[in-house]
Structure formats: C-alpha cells, structure tokens
C-alpha cells in the first residue's frame, strides 16, 4: 500500500509570540512571565526584564512579520500556528477593557496570512501569562484567573471570528507539572508548591479551557477549538511487570490532561491519585457542566520518547523537552540530549486516536541544532541542514503511517519554522527553522533572513502533498 496524505492536509509551521515577536513594551504591551525569564526554565525569574533576555527582541517579528509571512507563503504554507501575547491584549491581565493597539497588530498579522491563503492556527495562552497575574494572584492557583482568561478569550474570539478558524486553549498544558511558573504563572517556588495547590491550579485551567470552548462555539459555531498537550510516549525499560506498571502510572500523569479535554470528566485513576495524596479538588457550582464542553480535536507536540522503570538504580533522568525521562538504550540523541524516535510519533498518534476518536493535529515537531551559515555555489548564504531534513522526513513518514492506520489527522506544523529563541534554554543557537535569522546569543547580528536547504525541501514536500517524502 502506498502512503499518502489526505487532500486538504494542512501543512505549515509553528511559533510562539514570546519567542519571536520582540517589541516587549511596544504599543501598550505589558510584561509577561517570559520577560523575566532570561535563562529559560531552569533558573528563577528576575524581578524586572534584563538586557540578556533574548526574548525582549526575539527576531523582531513584530516589525518584520510581512517579510516572514511572505517567506512562509513561498514555501507553500497552508497554515501558520502562532500565539497571541495575552499581555498585548490585556497588559496586566485583569483590566476590563482591552488594549486596542494590541488587537490591531493581530488584525494586521492575520490579514497578511490570508493575503497568501494561509490559515492562522492560534494558541490563546502559550507560556506568556501577564506578569501582574503571576505576582498579584499567584497565577492559576487563584480562581480569579478563570474569569480573566474568559474575558480575554471572548475578546479575541469576537475580534477575530472571521479571521481565525483554528484555536488552541493552552500550550503544552501538562508542562505545569514540572514548570509551574512558565506554564501556569505560579509565583510560589516549585519546591514550596504543594500538590493540593498545583492540582487546584490545573483544575482552574481545565475549567477555563472548557469555558473557552463554550464561548468560542457560541460566537462562531464553525470554530475548531483544540487542546494542546506535550506528548511523550513512555516505554517500559524492561518487560518486567513492575516496569510496565510504573510506565502506566507515569503515562497517566500526561494522559490525564487530554482525558479531561476530550472526555469532560476526571478519570478514575486520578481520583485514586488524589485520594492517596490527600488532594481534594474544589469544584465551584457549574464546573462539572462546564467541563463537558469538550474540544473538537487533540493537538500535541512531539519531539522524543522516554523509558520508565521501577528499579531505583536505573532511574537516571535524561534530558528532554521539559519532561525528561530514563534514556532509551536503542536511540540516538540530538545536540541537546533529546532522544530521536520517529516511530514513537506513530505510536502516540494511534494511542490518542484509539483513546478519543477525535481528529489530531501535530502542531510541534522539529530538531533543535547548531546551524552554520555558509555560502553556496551560487554565492547565496544558506545552511546545509541535511540533518534537519532527515529528522523531519523520518517523522513525516511516520505521520503517513499513522494515517494509513486509520488515524484522522488535520495537519502538521513544524516547530520553529523560522529561527527563534528557545523556550527551555532562552538560546538562539538552538535553531529549528527552515529560515536562518542572523541573530546570536550575545545579541549581535543583522536580523537578516536566509533560506536553509530545508526551506527548499519542505517547499517540495508541501507542493507534492507529501509524495516527495517517498521518492
């Protein structure tokens, strides 16, 4: 059987506002949690934004978006995933009225996408909670954020109801387990944050997400609103039953988040976890009914798989996309220690579809690497990134395999389609894009854009609806 992608498959790329827009105080924007995270997720936030925070300038997409969208159109993008910076719309997060200049920027951005026939896919909250909400309310620990988020969602749903069809409520929502400040705007240090407070904050996010689905469908019934989870297949390190049980328990920590979004209620295994850990989730009147407003599709990031074991002597944690795990002895790793497992993508897609029977959208997948800008035989500057082409090709073949398995897939957006600042490490040398941006970790560079070899490769993939992958 020949592998193929369905007609109308949404090919494109993905970014986040905080990692490329820059202009961190332009046109009324307030500070976000990202503005005080100059060194990524593994160091405490600063009191105020500092000059060594690469995200304050990013790649200056705020002023260069027309140039960049034109390059995406040249590749043939059908969809462009980005986020709206919450603090551009509500600078502090708790205002009653939005910032009109912020709304106008995204009007212009989405209009530019449509000029080239590109469908925006918009993340409502992508690791950029307004800093005021983190410091004044302790982020999502506070129930008041449900109302603030609902007001924000209603504002942008209403404003862009004829410009945006596809929406995601929270980016990698399950990452709050490891990084409560970045993911949930929770100012209480992780080591002092109790499980009760953490899971209550998660409940507040679930309610807000479901409320957004309800509000969005009321404003425009044609909206397609999805959740977004960090996916990471977990394999038993050995066939020992204890390893298998440990794997199941670890997997539940992540599956839980998609279960709530897709099914609309708390699963039994989490009720057991809450009971055994003395956690009592407080439901406000109406929460149970709100949660039943389930998502239209499941979207996810996929970069790697991990292993799990019950043997404490083998529980050596490797590097990974926010949620590390026990390394797999059969896999190679990227420059940042992320293990490369294309077949794991097919596995997780089948698992999601078997579990939920809802369409899937692969909204993040890519390879972060140190790229070298060179001059080719025509005198043009480029990057010979055959390693990225191989990585993406191997993963896209597995997407096609999953489609052949019967999995319904809406589209695929490669992460960091243009070089941007890393979320985990706040570096620019960790590059993902098809487009090289001349900016470096010391702040130097012209910000000029150059097409990498992968740019031309992905252009052909899209033009052939994936058939060039199988040549």
Descriptive keywords:
two-stranded parallel sheet; 14 helices; eight-stranded parallel barrel; 14% strand; TIM Barrel; Glyco_hydro_1; alpha/beta; 471 residues; glycosidase
Task: Set down the secondary structure blueprint.
Layout: E1 10-14, H1 17-20, H2 61-75, E2 79-83, H3 86-89, H4 100-115, E3 119-125, H5 131-137, H6 144-159, E4 166-170, H7 180-184, H8 195-219, E5 224-231, E6 234-236, H9 241-263, H10 268-276, H11 287-291, E7 297-302, E8 306-308, H12 342-356, E9 360-364, E10 373-375, E11 381-383, H13 386-404, E12 409-415, E13 435-437, E14 449-451, H14 453-463
Helix pairs in contact: 2-4, 6-8, 12-13
Organism: Paenibacillus sabinae T27
Family: Belongs to the glycosyl hydrolase 1 family.
Protein name: Amygdalase
Please characterize this protein's 3D structure.
- This protein is α/β, with parallel strands linked by helices and 471 residues long.
- The protein has a single domain (10-470), classed as TIM Barrel (Alpha-Beta Barrel), CATH 3.20.20.
- The chain is 37% helix and 14% strand.
- The strands form four sheets. The protein has an eight-stranded parallel beta barrel, surrounded by five helices. A two-stranded parallel ribbon has the order 6-8. Strands 10-11 form a two-stranded antiparallel ribbon.
- β10 and β11 form a beta hairpin.
- It is globular and about 65 Å long.
- The model has no long low-confidence stretch (mean pLDDT 96).
- It comes from Paenibacillus sabinae T27.
- This is Amygdalase.
- The active site is at 364 (nucleophile).
- Pfam families: Glyco_hydro_1.
């Amino acid at each position: 059987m020949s592998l193929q992608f369905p007609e109308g498959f949404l090919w494109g790329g993905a970014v986040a506002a905080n990692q490329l827009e820059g202009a961190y105080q332009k046109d009324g924007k307030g500070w976000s949690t990202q503005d005080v995270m100059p060194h990524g997720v593994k160091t405490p936030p600063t009191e105020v934004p500092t000059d060594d925070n690469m995200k304050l300038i990013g790649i200056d997409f705020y002023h260069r978006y027309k140039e960049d969208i034109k390059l995406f159109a040249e590749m043939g993008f059908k969809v462009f995933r980005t986020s709206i910076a919450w603090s551009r719309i509500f600078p502090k997060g708790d205002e009653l009225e939005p910032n009109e200049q912020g709304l106008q920027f995204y009007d212009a951005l989405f209009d530019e996408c449509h000029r080239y026939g590109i469908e925006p896919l918009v993340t409502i909250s992508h690791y950029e909670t307004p800093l005021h909400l983190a410091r004044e309310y302790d982020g999502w620990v506070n129930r008041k954020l449900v109302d603030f988020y609902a007001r924000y969602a209603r504002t942008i749903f209403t404003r862009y109801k004829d410009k945006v069809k596809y929406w995601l409520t929270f980016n990698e929502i399950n990452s709050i387990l490891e990084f409560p400040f970045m993911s949930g705007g929770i100012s209480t240090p992780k080591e002092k944050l109790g499980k009760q407070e953490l899971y209550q904050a998660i409940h507040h996010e679930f309610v807000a997400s479901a409320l957004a689905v309800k509000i969005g469908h009321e404003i425009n019934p044609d909206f397609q609103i999805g959740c977004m989870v960090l996916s990471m297949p977990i394999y038993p390190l050995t066939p020992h039953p204890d390893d298998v049980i440990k794997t199941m328990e670890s997997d539940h920590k992540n599956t839980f988040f998609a279960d709530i979004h897709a099914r609309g209620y708390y699963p039994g295994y989490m009720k057991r976890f809450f009971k055994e850990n003395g956690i009592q989730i407080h439901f406000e009147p109406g929460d149970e009914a709100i949660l039943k407003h389930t998502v239209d599709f499941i979207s996810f990031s996929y970069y790697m798989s991990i292993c799990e074991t019950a043997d404490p002597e083998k529980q050596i944690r490797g590097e990974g996309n926010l949620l590390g795990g026990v390394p797999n002895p059969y896999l190679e790793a990227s420059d940042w220690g992320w293990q490369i497992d294309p077949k794991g993508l097919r596995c997780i897609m089948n698992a999601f579809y078997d579990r939920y029977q809802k369409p899937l959208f692969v909204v993040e997948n890519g390879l972060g690497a140190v790229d070298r800008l060179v001059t080719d035989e025509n005198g043009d500057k480029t990057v010979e990134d055959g390693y990225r082409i191989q990585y993406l090709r191997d993963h896209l073949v597995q997407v096609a395999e999953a489609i052949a398995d019967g999995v319904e897939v809406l589209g695929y957006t490669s992460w960091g389609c243009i070089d941007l600042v890393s979320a985990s490490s706040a570096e620019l040398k960790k590059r993902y894009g098809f487009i090289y941006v001349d900016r470096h970790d010391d702040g130097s560079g012209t910000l000029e854009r150059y097409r990498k070899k992968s740019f031309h490769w992905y252009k052909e993939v899209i033009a052939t609806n994936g058939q060039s992958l199988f040549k």
